[in-house]
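Exercise 7.
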Amino acid sequence: MASYQTRDARAWAREHLVGCSAVTIPSYSADLTRLNERGIRHDIQKTIDLGYSYTLLCAEVAITPEENAHFTAMARDTAGNKLGLFFHAAFGTLAENIEAAQLAERAGADIVLLSYPPQFWPTSEQQIYDYTKAFCDSTGLAVMLFPIPLWGFERVHPAGMSVALVRRLLADCPNIVAIKAEQGFPLIAGLCEMYRHFRDEVVISCPIEGDALPMMSLMDLQFSGTSNTAWMSDYYPRAFALARRGEWDAAMELFWKVSPARNANGAAAQSYAGGTGVLNRTMWKYQDWLAGFNGGPLRAPAMRVPDRLMKSLRQGLVASGLPVTADPDSAYITGRHPC
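Solution. The predicted structure, written as tokens, is:
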């Protein structure tokens, strides 16, 4: 259960939602019928070892609410109080998300990243408001609002979630404690607008490391996540901490050093994100495997990773001087702890 009351959720976030959040994709058995406990525990411990303060327990991988609660319980047991856990509200319907959130809360989740189902097709801000408020009212967990073009809300407003809508939600949902500000992605307009209007009310997160570190010369950002950065090992938590301490030049020295990996990641993401609006979680899991995480198979429907992108992602790490496994790519699908 959460360690705070709804009325105190924003104060809790201001104090505790600090640092960087990784993303942990669950590991499965070879026959895909059950969760792989050894693989999951390996990944949670590695996330802690790399210096992350939170991780998102990714649910966009054909996992049931009950399995997701088991995933959360294993992560909590492994992490203790060393790692905060995001529940990923990415299930198929509002009702299923509410059920899964309640199960995850009892299993040890700390906070929610609020996604929206593909079949949620609002044509007015009121419909977005109603879905969001219904979810927030159903959970005792703090919630991170997540405006991003993936949801298709631009049919309602060019920003997807306008300042007026966000202001209304913050007024009526006291457990919204943070905004993962990606309106207009890949531009930074959403980040700038949310920071200008709401930084004194809730935590503003810039999850894109290539934007966050440069913007920290202008913005006081305490948290970055959730995003695909653990594949670069401990680089991002170290650089983010340096920038927060005012050692921005040292942070930027690290920033430029890892440019080959960042560029390889950007090129790989362009192969799927713009056209599909769906994140390639197989690629994310492969990237983490390169850095020593478990890897292993994912349930269908799962996107594939072409060999050419595997090679470019691996070489990006090599060129950046970041840790990368010497194991052949064929070992990825087996995983480091197969079961």
